[in-house]
Amino acid sequence: MDIDILELSDRSARFILSDVDAAFANGLRRTMLADVPTLAIDEVNIYNNTSVLYDEQVALRLALVPLLTSFDEFTPHEECSCEEGCPACTISLTLSVEAPMGEEKTVYSGDLVSADPKVKAADSNIPVVKLKGGQQLVLEAIAKMGYGHDHAKWQAGVACGYKNVPVINIEGCDLCEKCVEACPRDILALGEESAEVVDDRLLNCSLCKQCVEACGIDAISVSENDTSFIFTLESDGSYSAEELIINAVNTIRTKASTLDNILGEL
Amino acid sequence: MLPVRCFTCGKVIANSWEDYKRRVEQGEAPAAVLDDLGVTRYCCRRMILAHVELVDVVAPYQ
Ligand code: SF4
Ligand code: SF4
Ligand SMILES: [Zn+2]
Ligand SMILES: [Zn+2]
């Protein structure tokens, strides 16, 4: 297995994963979406809500706010030894905002105050509800560590996907330029003796094969490399993109060793 | 209120709304503003483009 990073920023990453099969690439994708646990608000005790949104709507909006999570410090609630929630799997946050008379005030995710300074909203500028003068929102929210396969609010990876690395072969070309015109992504250009792939553009090829159809003499062929994948992923903010990849791999590793143990006992 | 996340991909989009609204009211092209705010996928773009903000209309009635 080989990883070649193309882009890596705080919230997104793009890399080439090679020498693995599609099952592994898909396993990694599914783990990032569903099996990397994160913290998200799961229970809300409303003390006062005179805003225009129903309690349930406020609770849903709060639940979808990504919270910065430290992977090692919390245990997923369903695996925790407690039943009602304990400090190992839950954390409490409070929110108290009132709009002064005659003024409007927007409640933001940044208004959530948590018991642990490390746990806070990943983005502090997500509007929760707009309050008119005199309206008030006071509540306590309990965040639990959970899995993306139970609810999208626990989904750490956003828009994770991959495609095969394209392989374009050109042989016996007569420089008619039809493929260059047909390609919607400007991948091809005419070279000295044949049509050529423009430098650095190969990875943008969508494998649409319009160039193959356009070529009258079948000089160009487009296929996919079955063992190399261009992986793109985005994190919702609970982890950085780098942490998300590492946590996903650790999750797969734990699952594999659990399976190994079970098989060993049989 | 604009939904917190995109229904399709799950990206947080609500925090782009205020900037988007302000800049479009100042006359910038919506497409350019969305590109600039990093809302690049069309699933997320439709969330913002198709949104009708009604809080101010209903807010006085609690
Ligand atoms: S497969 Fe499509 S995108 Fe790729 S080079 Fe051919 S026409 Fe262009
Ligand atoms: S369409 Fe075929 S023959 Fe014409 S330039 Fe492209 S590869 Fe060469
Ligand atoms: Zn617990
Ligand atoms: Zn989206």
From TrEMBL, chain B:
Molecular function via GO: DNA binding; DNA-directed RNA polymerase activity; zinc ion binding
Transcription as UniProt keyword: yes
Principal location: cytoplasm
GO cellular component terms, A-Z: cytoplasm; DNA-directed RNA polymerase complex
Subcellular location: Cytoplasm
Substrates-to-products reaction catalysed: RNA(n) + a ribonucleoside 5'-triphosphate = RNA(n+1) + diphosphate
Cofactor field: Zn(2+)
EC number, UniProt record: 2.7.7.6
Keywords of the record: Cytoplasm, DNA-directed RNA polymerase, Metal-binding, Nucleotidyltransferase, Transcription, Transferase, Zinc
InterPro entries noted in UniProt: RNA_pol_su_RPB10, RNA_pol_suN_Zn-BS, RPABC5/Rpb10
Family: Belongs to the archaeal Rpo10/eukaryotic RPB10 RNA polymerase subunit family.
Subunit structure: Part of the RNA polymerase complex.
Protein name per the record: DNA-directed RNA polymerase subunit Rpo10
Annotated organism of origin: Methanohalophilus portucalensis FDF-1
